[in-house]
């Protein structure tokens, strides 16, 4: 039969494991919330990174924030980190999990229970269990073991959310380092793009759609080095490759008597990254 000191040691060991779990979830919630950041570029100064303030948030407060901005249900409005009217070049990085209503309610319940269990251990555990009594020490151990079983499914699922979020961030970072990002944010300021824009805007035929071949001929006449510049600075083989594969242009195929032709328009949509979670 174990003596009371051995039972207490086991209690303290189990309490330590729970403390690590609580702190891990708290730190990861902070990390997830800080992923939703805005990077602004003003003049030629260093980029300004604006993140949500989470430093002094408690586990309960972090949980509420996460359920409103990270783990969302349906088409809830995003929380804007900075004013929409700010007149600067900006990149909004957003990580969120769009959950079905049932899963969102389930996660809400799990998080609230997790916070309640943490508060109980921190503030009421020794009121509930008298650790100077052998039988109550054993009851405390049983309670902590059951609590560990209860939390395991939630902790495993939460770990998967964190892994998925990191994969999403890695995707965004890869994009920011890519020629595609450079194309999206710098090429529209180039004379070549502006000329294409003029040609499209001035085209009143076919609902505003213009032939890719026509664009290629006109741009080559005005900018003989266009293909070389595009290959050197943006990594595309030539202008046609950029138009077809950069996402800056909408594409449409139209049948002709000789086969088909590609028509283009400007694409004013935003570049986004989505990870679909069931």
From TrEMBL:
Residues 198-261 form the HTH OST-type domain. CDD domains: LabA_like_C. InterPro entries: LOTUS-like, OST-HTH/LOTUS_dom. This is HTH OST-type domain-containing protein. It comes from Acinetobacter celticus.
């Amino acid at each position: 039969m174990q003596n009371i000191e051995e039972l207490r040691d086991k209690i303290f060991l189990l309490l330590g494991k729970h403390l690590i779990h609580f702190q891990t979830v708290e730190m990861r919630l902070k990390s997830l919330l800080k992923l939703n950041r805005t990077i602004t570029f003003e003049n030629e100064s260093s980029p300004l990174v604006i993140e949500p303030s989470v430093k002094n948030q408690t586990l309960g407060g972090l949980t509420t924030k996460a359920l409103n901005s990270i783990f969302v249900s349906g088409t809830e409005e995003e929380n804007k980190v900075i004013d929409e009217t700010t007149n600067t070049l900006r990149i909004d990085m957003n990580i969120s999990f769009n959950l079905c209503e049932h899963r969102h309610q389930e996660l809400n319940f799990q998080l609230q229970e997790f916070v309640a269990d943490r508060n109980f251990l921190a503030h009421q555990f020794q009121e509930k269990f008298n650790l100077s009594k052998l039988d109550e020490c054993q009851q405390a151990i049983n309670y902590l073991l059951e609590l560990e079983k209860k939390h395991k499914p939630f902790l495993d699922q939460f770990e998967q959310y964190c892994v998925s979020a990191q994969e999403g961030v890695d995707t965004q970072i890869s994009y920011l380092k890519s020629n595609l990002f450079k194309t999206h944010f710098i090429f529209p300021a180039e004379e070549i793009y502006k000329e294409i824009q003029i040609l499209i805007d001035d085209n009143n035929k076919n609902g505003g759609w213009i032939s890719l071949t026509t664009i290629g001929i006109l741009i080559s006449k005005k900018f003989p080095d266009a293909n070389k510049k595009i290959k050197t600075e943006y990594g595309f083989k030539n202008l046609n490759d950029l138009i077809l594969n950069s996402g800056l242009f909408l594409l449409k195929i139209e049948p002709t008597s000789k086969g088909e032709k590609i028509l283009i328009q400007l694409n004013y949509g935003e570049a986004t990254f989505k990870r679909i979670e069931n």
